């Protein structure tokens, strides 16, 4: 009996010893905890964004993210274009320029010129076209006659007339400004002379776009 008891005690001591050894090694069965090791991630030399610690993280590309970064296109303007001024016919331009020249000349006169008579206006327009055709400023007409040959009553006693002309001025204002300074103001003094009460105004443009201006002044 003593030997059997000794055997049982020895077995019990062995069991306890084995249990202590297993406990020191981390426990038994499902209670054992394995250390965690992160999965291996290979590094890439391009296509990644690096943070300040030196680790890299790749961001998957997507067409939606690229399209959202583009600037939205601005819609086409819906405002209609500003209407352009209609081009004047030669007749309309002549009438407009005659009116503007007359108004500018009368601003300096004590007795304004009356509206040009049709016969005097026709004569002034003929002279402007003759100057434009010859390209030469002269009181002589292309046929060699004096400009007065166009004026009715030029052979009557007491008839007094004056012809003033210029070329190259683009507008009525430029033409009148030229008259004020031409020949040290002599032409402008003629315009202001009250003995001239009638006026004819002509305007023509040559093939190169050079304008020619004509004034015919008559006494009353």
TrEMBL record:
Residues 118-209 form the SCP domain. Pfam families: CAP. InterPro entries: CAP_dom (IPR014044), CAP_sf (IPR035940). Residues 42-77 have a biased composition (Low complexity). Transmembrane segments: none annotated. Residues 42-89, 122-150 are annotated as: Disordered. This is SCP domain-containing protein.
